[in-house]
Structure formats: C-alpha cells, structure tokens
Amino acid sequence: QSALAQPASVSGSPGQSITISCTGSSSDIGSYNLVSWYQQQSGKAPKLLIYEVIKRPSGVSNRFSGSQSGNTASLTISGLQAEDEADYYCCSYAGVRTLVFGGGTKVTVL
Amino acid sequence: EVQLLQSGGGLVRPGGSLRLSCAASGFTFRIYAMSWVRQAPGKGLEWVSAISGNGDVTYYADSVKGRFVASRDNSKNTLYLELNSLGADDTAIYFCAKDGGVAYYFDYWGQGNLVTVSS
After folding, report:
1. What's residue A2's pLDDT?
2. If we measure between CA atoms, which residue out of B47, B26, B55 comes closest to residue B97?
3. At CA B47, angle to CA B104 and CA A71, rounded to 5?
C-alpha cells in the first residue's frame, strides 16, 4: 500500500488560510469517506484534528476543516496562528482493516 | 481522562526481539480496538497493526506481517506488541493508539517509545 501524497511543506502568514492536499487512489480515499487528519508538534505524539473527512472532535478549533473530492482529501486551516506550526498527516482506510498515512506536510507560519 | 502509558522500548541487535507495552486508563478498554503506529527518525507515520477489542482478530501492515505480534490483556487494560526478527528498517518511535470507533481513526495516542535496531 503506497503512502498518500501530501506536499512536503506549506506556508502562510498569520491570519491567512492554507490548504493541505492529500491524494490517494480509488483503493483508499476514493472508496471510503474515512479520512482523518493529525497534527504533530515537534517531539510529541500526533493529535486528532479531523475524522470521517469533515468531523471535528470536541476541543479542536473550528479553524480546522476537512473536505474530500474523489481521490483527494484536503485540510484547511483558517486564521493561521503561530501555534499551528507543526507537521500534518492525513490517513485513510484502505480496506481489509488496513490504514495508510500520507507522507506529512510541514506547515510554517511566516 | 484517557491515558495511554507506554513502556518497553530500547536498543536491540539486528535479528533480536523486543516487547512493547501500552497501559490504558480512563475508558472501557475491552470495547475498543487498538492500534500501533510507528515513525522512523525524521520520517512520516506508518500504520503497523490493529487488534480487536476482545483480542481475537489482528491485522498487520505487509512490512511487519509474520514478524510482529499484537496482543492485549483486557484484565490488565494493557496492549502489547512483540517485535521479532528486527532489522534496521524497524528503528522508529512506536506509538500505541486508541481507535475512535468504527470509522478507523485514532482519538488518543501514547507518548511513544523509541526502538533502535543496531549492532
């Protein structure tokens, strides 16, 4: 199972919106509405941001939103803040109880 | 409060074995599937294994199938991962994670344990 494709880095100024794409295939993202997104601060465990493409766990800022079109999922961060600097990973169910992650995207706040 | 406290990482020689543990608290452990996810130094996340709530069914990534064994002791609220026939490519931080439900996502993570395979 190949990793999902994410841009290596995305940057933006405080207050701006950025979008991170996550491209898979008809075997994973395209077949299931089961994409999740995680934020990983340096040296820490990942934190769940989005699940089932668009759902946000309680306690996660509504500045984070998810979407999906075909084989590509996206995470949008609105009103970018310095604390949003981190690595972001998408993850999709890939059938037969397996999951596949994206390669990760480093977000830099300029 | 949900907590996942990991132990058992360390340095192991190529071909060796190691067992990781993940002690859970703050939720009804036996109800939830649990997973292991690893991260090689400076690299991305890789799903490794999942185990059903009652421990009857396990799933593995192709990269570890036949070498790693996931298990759990619901009487101790503890998840295990036995790593065998280790190679340099297995060097990584290993995270245990609680499945959020039927939608295949991880809502809580352990702190991670570094496993280093080196002679």
Report:
1. 82
2. B47
3. 60
